[in-house]
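INFO worker-7 received task bundle
INFO bundle size: 2
INFO processing item 0
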Amino acid sequence: MAPLKALILNCSLKKSDEASNTDALLNEFIKIFEGEQVEAELIRVVDYNIAYGIAEDMGDGDEWPQLFEKIKEADILLMGTPVWLGEKSSVSKKVLERFNGSSTVKNEKGQPVYYNKVAGAVVTGNEDGAKNAAGDLIFGLSQIGYAIPPNPIAYWVGEAGPGPSFIEAEGYKNEFTQSNVQMAGHNLIHLARIFQQQPIPTKGNAS
């Protein structure tokens, strides 16, 4: 089988020159991917000029087409977002809208281009809303064609109310979070390998 590729989209509001708690948790997945010989690339979405809209290319310097090429090549997609006011970031919402705008693109079998790919979600913050944010991401990705394995999310939000975030609080030591990282990471890889050998049939799923 060909080596699997994982694309990790950090939908933080911070660019790459700033420390990101979401990055720190996403890097726990990279350890698993690399241990299983899965090629992984981590991208800060705000480093790209992603326009608002639902077209494949909004023009005027829109860099979504560049990102979309990486998305099409990846077998595994992992979306990470911080929580603000109990919700996923505005960046992650924009990304979901652009995913939807590109959902008419087909693979070589005439199926949606997101078929035979798997997805998961990661959430960080220091307030409630992790499952709500992750649920929005997972539902949106499943609606456009991504397959979702069991236990597809990992999160860390600390104690209720304002306080230290993942890096400062050493959230990587949290057993519950690490358990979910292990389950999600390995389940994503396992399901992606299944699709390599047994892709979704075209019957009823191709135009």
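INFO item 0 finished
INFO processing item 1
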Amino acid sequence: MATDEGFAAGAKREILGNFARLIDLRTGASHSEATQARWTAHDFALFAALLTVGYLAYYLHWADAGLGRLFVVNVTAACLHFAAVVLARRGRQLAAALVAVTTANIQIMAAVQVLGWESGLHLYLIAGGVLVFVIFTERQAPWRWFFILGAAVTFIVCQTVLSPGPERSVPVEKLTIVFSINAVLTLVLVSALAGLFYQRTNQAKAAAARSAATAEYLANTDVLTGLSNRRPLIEALEARGLEGDYVVAIADLDHFKALNDEFGHQCGDRVLAAIASGFKDRLRVTDSVGRWGGEEFIVVLPHTGIEQGAALMELLREQAAETVIPCVGHVHRVTMSIGVADGTADGLSHHVVKRADDALYDAKVAGRDAVSTRGLAESLPAESYQENPRASRIRRPGSTPGR
């Protein structure tokens, strides 16, 4: 029993999946408007052809009702609808749409002329007014309005002018059945078209949302490293400046220009990507890291003191120095100089960035491959750093100025 239920569930999922793929093939947002219109014209022509064949089978029961002319019209119409299907499959969307819609209108007028408005075939013209917005593209808008106006005029003529000749001998009860069938099919067709419009609208909204998300991602993300760029980082800084204590660190790769000049930008890009990956692996979920520009990175550490921030940056500096980065037959090791500054909820995040940049300069002056700090009270010029006892630095043993 469980096996049978599992098989039935799998079969149901497969059927629904195939149906979804079929719908996407015709109306998917990934397709152009012309492609969607082509498949809609194809499906309408096929539907009209099969429906015409159904009517022909039904009319055979009225062999003695004087419907010979209507029978000939519908045989011709079925052939034209199938021809429209072939045209659509060959990419001739406009020709297929014109043939299918024109043939359908002629069929309706011929049927009303023979059977009378009581047959209800002219009700299809209501759906036709909606249909032409689907099977004609925006570039073919004049054809839309031509057929909408034609459908309106045809509907009025069928309802008020056309009347069957005296040779009609179809019983009223049979016409009532035909009217009911046509009314139901018209309702189904209009509902299907409304659903199609609804689906396309949702697909267009989803596609617009995806495009907006992609554009925002590209605008806010450095493509090379996958890190944030300046804009979201500045926003993060402003938010941190309003929430409490935080730390800003600016890291710069030492002698990066020389690496680029000697081994090329391809290797330089690999180095940047590897260092960025190291930052992402080490930092907390609540931290923000991004590429500040060139070979500089910036880190925002919320709810963090300057000593804790400097210790974390020291770990990152050591990690970068120990990382071996292969590129085109070479391996590279790089060092970083890092400046660290702290801030509070004073709304002056740009001051914190300035102090972190000054601390970075201190690390460069001290010999590179170092972490330097500038606390809240430490805003002296970088050249007076050596005489500033409040400015602390953490350096790797053995590093020397001018390295």
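INFO item 1 finished
INFO post-check item 1: The chain has twelve helices and eight strands.
INFO post-check item 1: The first strand starts at residue 246 and ends at 253.
INFO worker-7 idle
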